[in-house]
Amino acid sequence: MTSPAAIPPRVLTVAGSDSGGGAGIQADLKTMLALGTHGMSVLTAVTAQNSLGVQGAWELPVDAVRAQYRSVVDDIGVQAVKTGMLASAVLVDTVAELLAGTRAPVVVDPVGVSKHGDPLLAAEALGSVRTKLLPVATVATPNLDEVAQLTGITVTDEAGMRRAAAEMLSFGPDWVVIKGGHLPGEAVDLLTDGGEEHWLRAPRHDNRHTHGTGCTLASAIACGLAHGQDVPTAVRSAKEYVTGAIRSGFELGTGIGPVDHGWRTRG
User: Fold this and answer.
1) Which candidate, 79, 138, 153, 173, has a CA 20 to 30 Å from the CA of 95?
2) How far is CA 264 from CA 65, 143, 218, 239, 251, in A?
3) Which are the contacts of 194, defined by CB distance < 8 A and separation ≥ 6?
């Protein structure tokens, strides 16, 4: 008689779909599988998207988002939640309310624009991100463009990353990761809770196929938290995973290809 299989940690992504498979829900679920968790999804929006950019985006009704969330959380349960593209103020408000009633760590990737510069969040939703979504975040993971959107701070160096982190923390997340990948030199991120400060550095790989890095990092952090890691350990592990995925990113289509979520399984 065989013993029942162990149940992997359960991680939920609340985000939009990327039809090209490199970012969004698709990247999240690939990351969750690669990192030994059971990935589940609440779809907030559908995009027509490929290596060249986003050709169209359509948000789902609030009732559909709420029903997906309740269906998963009330029956299956979650050990961590990750949010990505939320599209509009009403969806940000809805998701923030749902998260506030869920006893699990939350990683908020405050997605504002795509890798190609296409807007993925309505301008009027920024206030809701600041006042409702970020206060329920265990970890927030803005890139420098999102920092500028949310705080008005234009970061050009590591001192600016520290100022941006303090401003982001004022919105209420427990921890923030300021992603400095757009700065010259090595790829450096700053993780802080306002007391502890961790500078995470990695070599910069000469590979332009980096579609999905933000989604992948946030999902990897959520996986670490679901496995019971503390925040610094989860973020360091996620940084290592994403760095390998960037190194192995590959060409698809005629534009920017995706990172390789399965790089650890390829020789």
Assistant:
1) 153
2) 33, 25, 18, 14, 18
3) 165, 166, 169
Range scoring the smallest mean pLDDT among 1-5, 138-142, 152-156, 233-237: 1-5
Strands 80-83 and 10-18: parallel
* Whole-structure pTM value: 0.96
* Among the listed residues 74, 8, 17, the one whose alpha carbon sits nearest the alpha carbon of residue 41: 17
Catalytic residues: 179, 210, 212-215
pLDDT of residue 1: 64
Candidates 175, 184, 172, 181; CA nearest to 146 is 181
For the sheet containing 175-179, what is the strand order?
53-59, 38-50, 10-18, 80-83, 106-108, 139-140, 175-179, 187-192, 197-202
- Alpha-helix runs per DSSP H in the chain: 24-34, 62-75, 89-100, 126-128, 144-151, 158-169, 213-226, 231-247
8, 220 contact by CB (below 8 A): no
Exposure string for 34-70, b = 16+ CB within 10 A, e = fewer:
bbebbbbbbbbbbbebbbebbeebebbeeeebbebbe
Residue recorded with tokens 């973020």: 235
Judge contact between 95 and 14, C-beta under 8 A: yes
